Amino acid sequence: MDAGQRIEQALEASLSGSQRQGCPPLLAQAMRYGVFPGGARIRPRLTLAVAKACGDSQPAMADAAAAAIELLHCASLVHDDLPCFDDADFRRGKPSVHKLHGEPLAVLAGDALIVLAFETLAGAAARQPHRLGALVCVVGAAVGARGGIVAGQAWESEPTIDLSRYHLAKTGALFAGATMAGAAAAGYQHEPWRALGEKLGEAFQIADDIRDVASTPEELGKPCGQDAAHLRPNCALTLGLAGAIAHLDELVLEAIGSIPACPGASKLGTLIGLTAKSFLPESLQRRAA
Prior knowledge:
Blueprint: H1 3-18, H2 25-35, H3 42-53, H4 59-80, E1 90-91, E2 94-95, H5 97-101, H6 103-123, H7 132-143, H8 149-155, H9 163-185, H10 194-214, H11 217-220, H12 226-229, H13 235-239, H14 241-257, H15 265-276, H16 282-288
Antiparallel strand pairs: 1-2
Helix pairs in contact: 1-4, 2-6, 3-4, 3-9, 3-15, 4-6, 4-9, 7-9, 8-9, 9-10, 10-14, 14-15
């Protein structure tokens, strides 16, 4: 089974299990709508890739870690699109959750997906309970108020923003969580994998800034120009398109160079290089060349 199939099956199992008893039907629909169909699933793919590079000794644990990372990512998108934040009408080429299901259910669906992520981790830990503590700490830190996604969103309400710190929390933290969770699920020390995730997260954030400035809603499946509209920091606006792409390429090389020693380090580096090419749409690469 390839990584994509593993991720989709793990997400389906998590959502199906959470909705068997007691979940209000409309909430269940909003939760499922926020997860399926997904985007590129870059973060959970990264979790599985790191677990594989480390030997993937417990595939069920790695699958749960990947699903948890993606559930948290999806929850963040549901909340990001709300009128109090981006007020976005579309996500992944379809109406955003609050446009289709209303604001109250969108807020609750995002909350429920966050809780479900941790339930998914706990449910997979029966065979390797000693790995659960590290995974919960890693995943919790990736989304929390001390440098996680919540902090990244909150920095936008501060009077001044450190761009590097903002990007590290808003995007890099969950990428770091993805790499560290993959290592922890495979029984490896997770901290050495932080740098890889943070570098890739920063690269992805720069790519997202570039897409926001230079792409189209049809290419992205969501509105463009949101950073300028909401007066948010944007690397492509600061450095220019060519400068931002050069910085992205530099970060990807640094990320590959930061891969810790493990049985599959070489293959992982090759995979990351190939994956990074998909950060920007092909048409945008041609325009920036």
